[in-house]
Amino acid sequence: MVNKDTMNFELEDKYGVQGLCDKMQDGLEVPLSFSNLVIESVKKYYDIELVQRDDVVQRKRGFWIGQPHDGKFVTLIDSKLAYHGA
Fold first, then answer.
1. This prediction's pTM
2. Residue 85 resides in a domain
């Protein structure tokens, strides 16, 4: 089971460190059910506050980092960039 302490490793495994940093600037799309876990993990390991940029988007149900999700996704972005037209 993924938790706050393992989420960072899962994200880095999925995107790579540089890819994850880029996604935090451009928009990291994650299942809604994982958004709080991602926000907490990124804050803990990167000291970056992520915020939701857009509304919830319905995608196909499936698996994300090996865990099932219901297909509801949100886009998270660095809060420092969110209000500057990013």
1. 0.88
2. no
